[in-house]
Amino acid sequence: MRPLHKTRNAFRTAAGLIIALLMGCTALPESTESRSGDLLIVYSGNVLGELKPCGCDQEEDQGGIERRMGYLKQVLLREPNTLLVDLGDNFKESTRQGKLKARTLMQALAKMNYDAVTLGDKDLLYGNRFLSGIQNIPWVAANLQLEGLTLAASRTKVLDNGLRVFITAVADPDLFYTSSDSNVSLSDPRAALQAQLAKARHSETPDLVVVLTHMTREKGLTFLDVPGVDVVINGHIEKDGDVIDMVPVNREGKIFVQPGPLGQKMGELRVRIHKDGGKTYQQKMVRLGSKAPMDPEMTQLYDAYNAEVEELFMATLAAKRKKKHNRVFATEQTCLTCHAQEHAIWSQSGHGRAYQALQEVNKSFDPECLVCHTTGFGQPGGFISEIDTPELKNVQCEMCHGTRLAHSQNPQGGFAKEANAACGRCHVKKHSPKFNFSRYWPRIRH
Ligand code: HEC
Ligand code: HEC
Ligand code: HEC
Ligand code: HEC
Questions:
Q1: Is 400 in the pocket of ligand 4 (CB under 6 A)?
Q2: Whole-angstrom Cα distance, residue 385 to residue 365?
Q3: Do the beta carbons of residue 115 and residue 83 sit within 8 Å?
Q4: Which tens digits make up the pLDDT trace of 198-237?
Q5: Residues lining ligand 3, Cβ inside 6 A
Q6: Is residue 66 packed enough to be buried (19+ CB in 10 Å), middle (13-18) or exposed (0-12)?
Q7: Does residue 443 line the site of ligand 4, with CB under 6 A?
Q8: With a 6 A CB cut-off, is 254 part of the ligand 1 pocket?
Q9: Where exactly are the structural domains of the chain?
Q10: Given phi > 0 = left and psi -120 to 50 = alpha, else beta, which region is 107?
């Protein structure tokens, strides 16, 4: 491996000299010595539509566009020689609300001064028309073509300190298989990368070559071995709960890193380019937790999204009201008549004020929150809105004990134990990462 590398470098130098001579350049010594200096690469990705964390759990309360922008403004002030890249998979589900999120997220991204944003398979969820309607995103993709959208195959950024960074991006065609991918055509990522590297060598004279890959970790890692590549940043996520390995892989003066899930943390990769062209790296993840500053412009953008969610919610009410359902839930007020003691404990617990918790954060109209903070939202006979179904607010008895209309009219036992299995429907990892039955149950025992 080594000797081959040396020969190649020698060849590069020779080729450089010849080109320099042809161009009539006289400053020969300078062209043989690399520029040196430091830069910072900040990377994000795998956001899956997370505009703002739900706030269900303090520890998981991280990320969101407000904190990201707050953080970025601080970094760019402190570090002028910064390259900012995003690895894609910004969208999540093809629902109307999902699309609202996607648009808001892209509007946010357009304001964040990114240098390169690549497309993941999830980003085609709403088709090419949607993407081409979004302005000012510095798309980079070398092996991907999308009708109606201009994608740069590569970009070269010249930093304040004179360092030239060449950025290109390739995606794995195997990840693009759904019907929404019908407008996209992908070519072989390796061949596309080789073509870009050739271009870099001949016309861009970069000091650092950064390749953004969108593929599985295993596949992304193989691009680290491509001669001429210094840094590989790989993104891709399937779903919310996926664990992503954020530990860098160092290999012969090169590095491979991955952004974490849901925009909760930002990757910081510090690169030092030495006089002899060698490179050393330092990597860390920066948690966008509750102490991170919130950017007011992003708060405005989020509030506008939230207002649209409320509008959408109101617009769907009329249709829901028309559907007449037989009564399904007895409601806690009925249970109260015979189980006053249990009811008193319940009403003092978090379950008894779960709807209020949403009101306090201006989220009592968001379907994505109501499912777990009310009784039967989205189910026949379940919560519709505070006006329509005030008797179904909060996580009531029947969310754990099952619908018990029959029991409340003709009480018979034998179902208490079933409730033990209910917790896991709402106390999922994302919203209640510390959940543990033996520690949680005593807090609501009745
Ligand atoms: C999958 C179910 C689920 C969804 C969806 C959900 N939550 Fe929660 N939420 C919970 C659970 C469970 C807890 C309690 C977590 C714990 O204490 O371990 C909680 C707690 C909270 C709390 C803290 C309450 C307090 O009094 O401390 C807030 C605020 C909250 N959620 C807001 C939201 C918002 C806003 C959304 C929508 C963006 C949302 N939740 C969506 C399940 C959910
Ligand atoms: C968060 C889930 C949850 C909610 C909400 C809830 N319960 Fe329970 N309840 C349980 C569990 C779990 C048990 C224990 C089952 C067992 O015996 O293992 C239980 C037990 C009971 C029992 C049997 C007590 C005993 O002594 O055996 C009654 C009665 C009861 N609940 C009534 C209610 C009423 C009434 C409400 C609403 C005011 C309510 N529960 C709300 C989960 C819940
Ligand atoms: C009319 C009075 C009455 C109403 C209303 C009523 N219950 Fe009961 N409940 C009882 C009686 C009586 C028992 C004991 C039955 C037995 O042991 O056979 C009981 C038992 C239970 C048990 C324990 C079951 C077991 O396996 O031992 C649970 C849980 C429970 N009720 C939940 C509820 C819930 C939830 C509601 C509201 C939806 C409710 N009850 C409404 C009278 C009532
Ligand atoms: C329908 C969804 C749902 C189910 C089912 C559910 N929870 Fe919860 N739980 C919540 C939400 C939402 C909160 C946050 C409420 C708040 O504090 O505003 C919460 C909060 C809690 C809390 C913290 C609040 C407190 O009062 O201490 C405990 C403990 C808890 N749940 C235990 C349980 C257990 C045990 C079960 C199963 C027997 C269970 N939950 C089932 C939604 C649910």
A1: yes
A2: 8
A3: yes
A4: 999 998 899 999 999 999 999 999 999 999 999 999 999 9
A5: 330, 334-335, 337-339, 397-398, 401, 404, 407-408, 411-416
A6: buried
A7: yes
A8: no
A9: 26-287, 329-444
A10: alpha
Q: Quick count: other Cβ atoms within 10 Å of Cβ 339?
A: 17
Homologous superfamily (CATH) of 26-287 is Metallo-dependent phosphatases (3.60.21.10)
pLDDT, tens digit, 9 for 90 and up, residues 140-159: 999 999 999 999 999 999 99
Eight-class DSSP state of 269? E
Q: Please work out whether the CB of residue 343 comes within 6 Å of at least one atom of ligand 2.
A: yes
In Å, how far from its chain's centre is CA 250?
25
Closest ligand to Cα 382: 4
Q: b/e for 382-398, b at 16 or more Cβ within 10 A?
A: bbbbeeebeebbbbbbb
Give the mean pLDDT of the chain.
92
Strand pairing of 265-273 and 37-44?
A: antiparallel
Tokens matching residue 88: 């894609």
* Contact partners, residue 406, CB within 8 Å, separation at least 6: none
Question: pLDDT-based confidence at 33, cuts 50/70/90?
Answer: low
Provide CB contacts within 8 A for 40, sequence distance 6+.
75, 79, 81, 82, 83, 268, 269, 270, 271
Closest protein CA for atom 42 of ligand 3 = 411
- Is 25 a residue whose pLDDT tops 60? no
Question: In this structure, are residues 206 and 187 in contact, taking their beta carbons and an 8 Å threshold?
Answer: no
- 38 CB less than 6 Å from ligand 2? no
Exposure on the CB side of residue 146, measured as CA atoms within 13 A: 29
Q: Which atom of ligand 4 is nearest to the CA of 375?
A: 1
Binding site membership of 421 for ligand 1 (Cβ less than 6 Å): no
CATH of 329-444, one of 3.65.10.10, 3.40.50.620, 1.10.10.10, 1.10.1130.10: 1.10.1130.10
Decide the pairing of beta strands 164-171 and 154-158. Answer: antiparallel
